[in-house]
Structures are given as C-alpha cells and as structure tokens.
Design brief:
Elements (H helix, E strand, L loop, with lengths): L1 E6 L7 E7 L5 E8 L5 H5 L7 H4 L8 H18 L8 H27 L21 H21 L8 E2 L2 E2 L5 H23 L3 H5 L4 H7 L4 H12 L11 E3 L10 E3 L3 E2 L6 E4 L17 E4 L8 H7 L3 H10 L3 H24 L18 E10 L2 E10 L2 E8 L1 H6 L9 H5 L6 H9 L5 H4 L2
Antiparallel strand pairs: 1-2, 2-3, 4-5, 6-7, 7-8, 9-10, 11-12, 12-13
Helix pairs in contact: 4-5, 4-12, 5-6, 6-12, 9-12
Length: 450
C-alpha cells in the first residue's frame, strides 16, 4: 500500500490530506489531518459570561459573525432556561439575521470563485478558463469585488467586519437610520443582478422555478454555473465525491432554511442525540490520534451539514431531483452552495424592507450574574450547523463547548465510521480530485481545531 501526504492549499488554515492507495491505483483510505489547535473552549473557562461576546468572534476570520450569533443565542437561552424574562424586538431579530446571512453570501462567493473553479484550470487550460485564473482573471477579480461589497451590509449595522460584537443579549448596539436601510438595499440589489447575470444566466424568478438539471441548462444563457456543470461532467465529478446519505440542519432561517435530520427519511432534530467523538484526537489518545479535531455523531451516525443538507431538509424540489440522480456528488454539493447565494439575497431584501427603524434596538435584560445552568445557542453558518453550549454560575463560564460545521464534515473518524469528507474521497484515482472533493466541503481548519 502506497501512502501519500498532501498539504492542502486554498483552504482556511492548515490541513493535510493523507491518502492510502491500493494496488489498483485507487484511494483505499484517507485521513484529514489538522494540527492547528488553539483551545478557545479552555480559554473561556472562568471568564465573565459577556467576555464570550468578544472572544468567540475571533474563533474564525471567515465565519466569526456566526460564532457571535451563536454566543448571543446561547446567553439569551440561558435567560429563558432560568425563567428570567428577556425581550428582543423584531427589528433586532431582522438585523441580526441580515448580517449573519451577509457573511454566508460573502463566503459562498469567495469559495466558488477563489477555491473551487481554479482547480479546473488544471484540466482545461484555455482562453475561456483563463477568466477564472487567480489574481488576474476577470471573473476572479469581479467575484472578489462583490464578496467585499456584501460585507458592507454588516459594517452598516455592526460597525465592522470581521470580528464585530454589535449583537448582544437583548438586541443590537446600533441605531440604523432609513438611509442605512436604503444603502443596504442598494448593495443587495447589485449583488442580485450580478448573481443573475454572471452565475445563473437567468432572472432569479426563472431560476427559483427550475426543477432539474435539464431545465436549468435549457434556460441558462451561459452563466458560470453552466460552465461549472460542464467541467464536472467532463471530469466525472458529476457522480464522484459521494459520502454518507445522512444530513443535519440545526436551525431554521425562515423562509429559506428548515431544520431537520435526514437518515433513511427526514425526522425531527433532537439535540440530545449529538455527541462528540474523541477516539482519534491526539489530545485524548496519543497512540491512535492523527488530528487535533474531534468528530461529531448524531444518534451514532456521521452527518453532512451545510448548504446541501439545508436544501434537502428544506425539501427544495430542484435538489431532491438532483440528489435522486447524482446523490451527494461533488457537483451537487457545490451547486447547493452556489444556489444558496441567490436564495439568501432574495430573502435579505425582504427582511430589509420589513425593518421598522422606530422600534428599539436594545431592551436591557436583568443582571446576567443571576444566571445559572446551561443552554445551547445554534445558527446556520456558511459551512453548516454551528452549536455553542455554555454552562454558567453567577455570570461566570464554568464550561463552554463548540461544535462547528467542519467538525461534522471533516472531523476525526470514530471506531465505526470515517468522517464524511474522508468517506467521500474513497475510490478516487486522482489526488487532485481528492483535494477538490475535500474542498467541496469548504475546509476551515481554524474552526475544526478551535
């Protein structure tokens, strides 16, 4: 058996991929190896509860806003679990949802154009694909421009991005004006137009009515998603990269995302069934450990999380049909993430129009130092379901546990199952394809080894 170690590039942080090849030249085993352990959960122990609002957004430079929102949700749920009233206005709820979704959109755009498409330049070097070439390609630069545009929405309401802490238990710290709403709407409208013209090659109304691959190709007027699909078919990635048929979404973002779990069929989420596995984490087992990341299981099973899981738990017809034909292949997994850009932007526009600037931004809750017990905070982040669990006594953190999307998708194996990403590369014959399949999960080692 031949063993190959690959240092992945174009990922968030440092990740190695260890591949084991059989005599037929196929991958027989794979290990996702992350060494970048930082220990945020240990840092939080003994800290004042509100310190988490400043510390947790620093867990990741790409999805730090999601960590802030999960932290706020956990603290607000502590109030509810302690039977202490806490009130949040609809205005504050809408703005927090808008800024969280702005972060998701910027990540998806960067990921598709900066991390995914450039891999195909190795297969199809031509004048056409040069448009996607990093740093110099026209489409590469345009995507970077628009991904930077959407985070201005976070800055309008939150003051900065990344690492903003404008959301707090009881609401938000900003007092946006009507002109701020207009500015945010203008940015979202520009993004919608860009996505319609450049990515989908059709209006959003037409796209949201698409039911299958053939209908999409017949309607699209040459968008970049059409180019991507063509690349996948020519390389076989329309069918390769499949993993476990288990999916999880822990939070509802009405009306575009519904929570749920899919095993053999869709069932209701039960947070008590979520368990971390540490059998192969070096911190807990130096003999068998190969990474500093834990894995996660739901009812004992590995689960995929992220945009594809969200489309399946939301029962979106297009993806139910794609999944029926191609399962969770590289093509379908990437398409789901690109699809989410448009669905979120359309809803962001609606949420912005619903904001009543005359409502209060913040209603001060009672003294947090009276809080006891534990609570969960959970949101949908760019890469999937994010869960924070905090245990508190007199306003001091006794323990803090974080389960990130990358732990679901790329965390360590257990004694029964490999991680979904490790499973997805088995049987491939090309190390480049193995890297591409891994990137289809949107690799983030800093969240993986937080």
């Amino acid at each position: 058996m031949r063993v190959q170690k690959i240092v992945l590039n174009r990922v968030e942080g440092d990740v190695n991929l260890k591949l084991c090849w059989d005599q037929n030249g196929k991958i027989s085993d794979a290990y996702v190896v992350a060494y970048n352990y930082r220990g945020f959960e240990r840092i939080l122990q003994g800290k004042d509860l509100l310190d988490a609002l400043v510390i947790n957004p620093r867990i990741c430079g790409i999805c730090g806003h999601a960590h802030l929102m999960a932290t706020v949700n956990a603290i607000e749920n502590l109030y509810k679990n302690s039977s202490i009233d806490i009130e949040i206005t609809e205005k504050a709820k809408l703005i927090k949802q808008i800024t969280l979704c702005s972060e998701i959109v910027q990540n998806h755009l960067k990921w598709f154009y900066l991390f995914v498409i450039p891999d195909f330049l190795n297969f199809f070097p031509s004048l056409e694909t040069e448009k996607f070439k990093p740093f110099v390609g026209e489409k590469w630069k345009k995507a970077l421009k628009f991904s930077s545009e959407i985070v201005k929405v976070i800055a309008i309401f939150g003051g900065q991005w990344p690492h903003t802490s404008y959301a707090i238990p009881g609401g938000i710290t900003s007092e946006p004006l009507k002109t701020d709403i207009v500015d945010a709407l203008s940015i979202v409208d520009r993004l919608i137009k860009y996505v319609e013209e450049e990515i989908f090659g059709m209006s959003y109304e037409d796209y949201l009515n698409v039911k299958d691959l053939e209908e999409f190709l017949s309607k699209s007027k040459g968008g970049d998603l059409t180019t991507f699909i063509d690349f996948c078919v020519k390389t076989g990635l329309d069918k390769e990269g499949q993993s476990y048929e288990h999916f999880i979404t822990v939070s509802t973002v009405y009306p575009c995302i519904n929570e749920g779990v899919i095993k053999k069929k869709k069932c209701k989420l039960n947070l008590k069934k979520i368990k971390e596995v540490k059998d192969f984490n070096i911190l807990y087992n130096k003999e068998t450990g190969y990474t500093y990341a834990n894995g996660v299981r739901y009812d004992g099973l590995p689960m995929q999380t992220g945009p594809l899981a969200r489309r399946l738990t939301s029962e979106t017809e297009l993806f139910l049909n794609l999944y029926r034909l191609y399962k969770d292949s590289y093509l379908v997994r990437v398409w789901a993430r690109v699809d989410e850009i448009l669905r979120i932007l359309i809803n962001m526009k609606d949420w912005l129009l619903k904001i009543n600037v005359n409502e209060k931004s913040y209603i001060k809750p009672k003294d947090y130092k009276k809080l006891y017990g534990e609570a969960f905070g959970y949101v949908e982040a760019s890469r999937g379901s994010l869960i924070h669990k905090v245990k508190v006594e007199k306003g001091v953190i006794k323990s803090y546990n974080i389960i990130t999307p990358t732990m679901w998708n790329l965390g360590s194996r257990c004694n029964k199952f490999k991680s979904p990403a490790e499973k997805a590369v088995l049987g491939l014959e090309d190390p480049l394809k193995a890297q591409m399949v891994l990137r289809s999960f949107d690799v983030c080692s800093v969240c993986l080894t937080h």
